[in-house]
Amino acid sequence: xxxxxxxxxxxxxxxxxxxxxxxxxxxxxxxxxxxxxxxxxxxxxxxxxxxxxxxxxxxxxxxxxxxxxxxxxxxxxxxxxxxxxxxxxxxxxxxxxxxxxxxxxxxxxxxxxxxxxxxxxxxxxxxxxxxxxxxxxxxxxxxxxxxxxxxxxxxxxxxxxxxxxxxxxxxxxxxxxxxxxxxxxxxxxxxxxxxxxxxxxxxxxxxxxxxxxxxxxxxxxxxxxxxxxxxxxxxxx
Length: 237
Fold this sequence. Notes:
Number of helices: 9
Low-confidence stretches: 1-5
Helix content: 40-55%
Number of domains: 2
């Protein structure tokens, strides 16, 4: 094993709260041995009730969905989250002695070139990966909430894909995920089957991905697969 990689520290910043216990089982198979994990959450200092009171989502169209440390789902508007997330990323880069940072968010992130620590953006990694595998392909995209579907469709169409969307939260009822998976089995893009079903949230687990693939019959991808493989490469594995 690479000696440097054996002592590597990977920072994980969630847009919800840390620790992300729903992530730990997957990291055991996705991350190379010897990589130490350090976690912070943008909402660590707040209760769910405080978040809902201070940052009401209302009719704001750009929302992000994540998880509180007790497993409850939290929804917050992207403009409200941005300063909290930025402060958390910078605090980790300054104080946690990490070699790289993964942000558990498939939304838009700054480059953070001023930090001196690589910050991996799931959105950019996934977009470039899917574009390389399926250029101008037919893409099915599952979002956690229905209100995200219009922005999701516009974003992926802007990346050159023909798109159909659906929704089911990784933090909600298993029956809802299974309903969406069965919907994906019949969902068409311009009258044809999709090339790939992409689960557009870092919250979807590998077990959920496997079940959705079984029920939908679709080639299915969660961002965890691409993002943590990239972290392995960056840290020397």
